[in-house]
Amino acid sequence: MNDRIRPLTSDDQSGLWTMLMYAAHESSLEIVRKNADLALYVKDWGRIGDWGFVAREGGEYIGAAWLRLFTSEEHGYGYIQSDIPELAFAVAPAYRGQGIGTKLLMRVLESAGNIYPAISLSVRSNNPVLNLYQRIGFVKVAGTEVVNRTEETSFNMIYRFDC
After folding, report:
1. Residue 27: partners with Cβ closer than 8 Å, 6 or more residues away
2. Cys-Cys link to 161, which of 10, 88, 113, 157 (CB 3.0-4.6 A)?
3. Nearest to 40 by CA among 66, 11, 9
């Protein structure tokens, strides 16, 4: 498994669009690319502060966990503050439940702990990955519940490093 996971590079932008489609629970890349709020997570990938890990098999992107720093003026759904990157995370449906997501998240956390005070994310309240986030140590940020673009409830979570 570990041989399938490697650091992301600027060459991975096309694969990240696919992973973002899965993360956003959308049915097409066109929808994701046209939604400005979603596109923030991948557009111009490779800028300063962009990094994470990807899992590939047979040339296909099967999972990714990536971080991006945002500003208070331009940010994603899980924004907390400018020195806390936001996590985007997805595993292709055919590969879920095999431990790939856990390995990707652990790689991100192990690498980010020496750089950032915390990592944030936004998650739908009915998303099964919520259990994984809680098990790893993410906690819900009080008062962040919103009705999201799909008319469901989402909220922010944060993972704080002990540094």
Report:
1. 21
2. 113
3. 66
